[in-house]
Amino acid sequence: MTPQNISASKYKDILHQLKSLADPKAVAGMVRFGINPKNTYGVSIPKLRKLAKEIGINHALAKKLWLSRIHEVRILASMIDDFEKVTEKQMEDWVKDFDSWDVCDQVCLNLFAKTRHAYYKCIDWSLRKEEFVKRAGFALMACLAVGDKDAEDKQFEVFFPLIKREAQDERNFVKKAVNWALRQIGKRNLPLNTKAITVCEQLQKAEAKSAKWIATDAFKELTSRAVQKRLKK
Hints:
The structure is a single chain. Helix content is about 70%, strand content about 0%. The protein is mainly α. Helix 4 packs antiparallel against helix 5 (about 70-80). The radius of gyration is 19 Å and the shape is globular.
């Protein structure tokens, strides 16, 4: 069999496997958390990760799975793709397809944050108007703050002006991602924690309700005893 035929065979088998795991009750539960139920099977993340481990890394298959437009299949695609082969064009094609916050966040966490384009895309997407594209920019910031252990502080400091500006965006999926990014950056180390707290104090003076909510929520965590104790060790 040719590689193309093998991929086609795997593709059909994967769709069959996921469909067999479909759980309508889980889909109903996902709706309560603001997840788009369209083309959704209701398969849990742990089950998707187990399947991804069995499949292994496969860039061509991942790109084909993405085209299925099925919620869980797209998350699975982000788990098996080869980040070293992901181009900026692919990232643009995929981010435009985001229609649910969990797909957005999972793709950023599993794949986009590992690519060489990640830091640039944080800035690029944060400037865009589309709700899930903008969310992806801040979700990437949060994922990088947690996952990129070798990054320098200055790589995150450039995000603070973007966070302050977009904190004015009242859209739910945007403001929650802005909040996520601010909290994760502020938990990296003491210097960034101090600067993130300053951002919170500045946002508390803003007129936008979203900015005040972000400031209050992030300030509470960043100044908490648990966070401060960990950072000071």
